[in-house]
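During the reporting period the student researcher (J.K.) took over the structure-prediction task from the postdoctoral fellow and processed the backlog of single-chain submissions. One of the processed entries is reproduced below for the supervisory committee.
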Amino acid sequence: MTLIEVLVAMPLALLLLFAAVDAMDLTAKHQSRTTKRTQAITQAKVGLDRMVREAREADSLKLLSSQVVEIVTPVRPTSGPSSYAGNLRLVRYDCTGGKCTRYEGPKAGPVAATGRVLVTDVANADVFTPSPDIVNPTFLGLKLRVSVKGQSNPINVTDGVNLRNKAVG
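J.K. obtained the following structure tokens:
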């Protein structure tokens, strides 16, 4: 190789190297965004599935607002036999303050002062939507709009429960 060939090849090789590094950096940024979005979707789906499952099994349901609902539902005991039968508990889902928190207590109440956060970054005010009306609902719609940090498009996760055999108060 001559000196001229080396002087021409070096800048070309550097340009290719910088292009490859830039492409890897862009891929890493997209991967981080995708990971955050996937984690938010998973958290919202798991939290919504738990709310729907417990509302579907509920003996009674009480809408306190469009963000708070109390249900008396079978809950798996933390110790002893894993039977749901006869283990009715009062469960409150409180979706205020940008998060959905699950509180639990004895059937007659009250619920515990501290709860378990199921979903964070909740952006919508109306999580629980009774149909056809709030006085005598036959269906409870649930919708979570979850914000993802650093992204403009929120995630919407929806589901619902028929209240055919529930006492609604």
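The committee noted the following: The radius of gyration is 25 Å.
J.K. will present the remaining backlog at the next meeting.
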